[in-house]
What does this fold into?
Amino acid sequence: MPLSTDVIVRRKEVTFPHKCVVCGTTVENGSTRIRGNPVGFYGVIPWIFGATKKLDVPAHQPCGSKLSRSLIIRNLSLIVGVILVLILAVSLGLSKWQAIGLAIAAIAIPIIWQVIRPLPFEFTHQSGEFKLMFIDPAYAREIATLNDGELEDDDENGREQDDSDVGSS
Ligand SMILES: [Zn+2]
It folds into this structure.
């Protein structure tokens, strides 16, 4: 499935090439400020108040405003969707297992959405680590090279699993 190619960057800032993250063509001066996606359930609150990490990414003006608009619409509708599911579960007086089933369905929505309507670029920032997600694998590789990043490319690494998150304290 054409999911995004992810790059992990452990730096304070991310260096981008002079290439629009949306259409992939050259951009000289234009940039757009993109909000990091909410991380986890409580990450939603800082996201709503615009307090999550922001990145200035190279983009043409129309490309950039389209990207930030679709990111906000996507995230907002996911948040509203989850709240509606919770209200529904409470008002219907669902049993514990039915409620769990609904919650799992609500969690699956963003994954399905990413497959159906992938965004050219989005990112999360957590404990000093950027997770940058690109639709264009070539762009992702370029970012990884520029920032000593770790590429998580499912197509090229095959079934190789990343077990680096086990006991790295
Ligand atoms: Zn562009």
